[in-house]
Write a structure and sequence with these properties.
The protein has 490 residues and is of the alpha/beta class. It contains 14 helices and 24 strands. It has two domains: 247 residues, Class I glutamine amidotransferase (GATase) domain (Rossmann fold), CATH 3.40.50.880; 210 residues, Class I glutamine amidotransferase (GATase) domain (Rossmann fold), CATH 3.40.50. Helix content is 26%, strand content 28%. The structure holds zinc ion (2 copies).
């Protein structure tokens, strides 16, 4: 009994591990006889979509002529996003054998005509059946489940049309909404092979130059022991951007690779996960370049919104709605009611990331710059402290401070070579923990530091004046790290 239970647990554990292991996908792309099929744009788009799902590990070949059985052995499925010249007998046999042996293939849009379908361009520039010996690749047509007479190649004028999921009993389509709209080319007049399973179709509107019939849009094909999914959608990234197209594509790729689908009926459409860090970015009081906004894009683990003034930011619900406050504003002082809200936020242990000119924030509020941030830029002389100075476009090397290279916020960044605005002659609390510093004589030594109160989660990053910083990958990583750290997530 105990033995059986243990075995059962082991099986479960194994199932959990194998479900989590990413499926290996090879995208076959490259040469196109058809310049409107911009594979240099669509291939990275598809690759990103697959990777972002977390289900796949994706490689790309732009040179399919080199494919061999050994080169394909590690993959679960191939994705064809290609309509160029033939690959040669070795590579074609390798792909054919790969699918036949039980692996998967996903084929999109323009793969259904051209040399791989035994066609060549005639003297009039139109596709025609090639008379050359060996021009036919019969297995290719069998894999795609389609023939397309060269004279029939085409589609109605590109327009937005509804796609109907006509078979929702298949693992790929199960649970998906029955209909969605795309803006794409609606391929028609194809000769489908018997035995294909049509999952999606669309009405080919005669008013747009269509046939007046429902045309198959997506289908599956059994080839040997393998699985093929062919979809005629996918002319360009704009067509592929449709959320339901992405769901269909992701689930079809998983099915082609495994014969099963674990991705949900809205895969690829999901917003940020529930535990994403909620960030409020505050500006107001100082001009900035719009490139600043891009610093917060591209992260699945955070969602952000923007307040264009302190008044707009520090409202009563502020504490409940956000985990991290990013300051990129500049104001001498705050109204008492705003101070109260902000103080409660900071003291609750939530995160504060102060960027660049926000070091000139709330300078009339000594608690803020002495206890919270631990630094102050003097706009004018005060007592025996002279005015601080700034200088634009200063080349700097910013490096981890002594002993800090492994701190979570700066780990892996190394030395950042950057051109940015230098600040000099500021006041720094003796209690700050400096994470990054510079030797540039035009700048004070500390550049990135944690505030003086160890109980708070406050960090200041001096860099960030303009696009040269905003677009710097290391700067973007540094700010992202600072946000996660201040949210207690690093
Ligand atoms: Zn097209
Ligand atoms: Zn600046």
């Amino acid at each position: 009994m105990r033995m059986a239970l243990r075995l059962f647990t082991a099986v479960l554990l194994f199932a959990a591990i194998s479900a989590a292991a990413p499926l290996r996908i090879l995208i076959i792309t490259g040469d196109s006889d058809y310049p409107n099929h911009d594979w240099r744009a669509t291939t990275p788009f598809l690759q990103n979509a697959l990777m972002a799902s977390g289900r796949f590990d994706v490689r790309v070949t732009e040179e399919p002529r080199g494919l061999t059985p050994d080169a394909l052995a590690g993959y679960d499925a191939v994705l064809l996003n290609y309509n160029g010249p033939r690959w040669g007998a070795l590579a074609e046999k390798a792909i054919e054998g790969f699918v036949r042996a039980g692996k998967g293939m996903v084929a999109l849009h323009g793969v259904s005509y051209g040399p791989l379908m035994g066609m060549e361009k005639g003297p009039n520039g139109r596709w025609a059946r090639s008379e050359k010996k060996g021009a036919e690749w019969p297995a290719y047509k069998a894999m795609l489940g389609v023939d397309w007479e060269p004279a029939n190649i085409g589609h109605a004028a590109r327009h937005a049309f509804p796609v109907k999921l006509v078979d929702r009993g298949h693992p790929i389509t199960r649970g998906m909404e029955p209909e969605f709209t795309v803006n794409d080319e609606l391929y028609h007049k194809m000769s489908h092979r018997p035995g294909i399973r049509v999952l999606a179709a669309a009405f080919d509107n005669p008013a747009k130059g269509g046939t007046g019939q429902d045309e198959p849009i997506a289908w599956t094909v059994a080839f040997g022991k393998g699985r093929v999914f062919h979809c005629t959608l996918g002319h360009d990234t704009s067509a592929m951007y449709q959320p339901e197209f992405l769901t269909l594509f992701l689930r079809a790729t998983e099915w082609a690779a495994t014969g099963e689908v674990t991705l949900g009926p809205r895969a690829g459409q999901t917003a940020a996960p529930k535990d994403a860090v909620r960030v409020l970015v505050v500006t107001g009081g100082h001009a900035y370049e719009p490139s600043f906004y891009t610093v917060f894009e591209g992260h699945k683990d955070m969602v952000w919104t923007h307040a264009a003034s302190q008044k707009d930011a520090f409202r009563p619900k502020f504490l409940e709605r956000f985990d991290v406050l990013v300051l990129y504003d500049m104001a001498n002082d705050l109204a008492d009611v705003e101070k109260k809200t902000l103080e409660a936020f900071v003291k609750s242990g939530k995160g504060v990331v102060s960027l660049h000119h926000a070091i000139v924030d709330y300078t009339e509020w000594s608690w803020w710059w002495q206890e919270v941030v631990g630094g102050k830029y003097f706009v004018k002389p005060l007592g025996d402290h002279g005015a601080s100075q700034f200088k634009d476009d200063v080349p700097m090397v910013v490096r981890p401070a002594q002993g800090m290279a492994n701190h979570a916020v700066v780990r892996g960044l190394g030395e950042i070579v950057i051109e940015d605005e230098a600040y000099k002659g500021m006041w720094h609390s003796p209690r700050i923990k400096v994470l990054m510093e510079t030797d540039t004589p035009l700048n004070d030594r500390p550049v990135v530091y944690i505030g003086p109160n160890e109980k708070l989660r406050v960090i200041y990053v001096q860099l960030g004046h303009g696009p040269s910083a905003h677009r710097h990958p290391s700067y973007r990583k540094l700010v992202h790290n600072a946000i996660l750290w201040s949210a207690g997530k690093l």
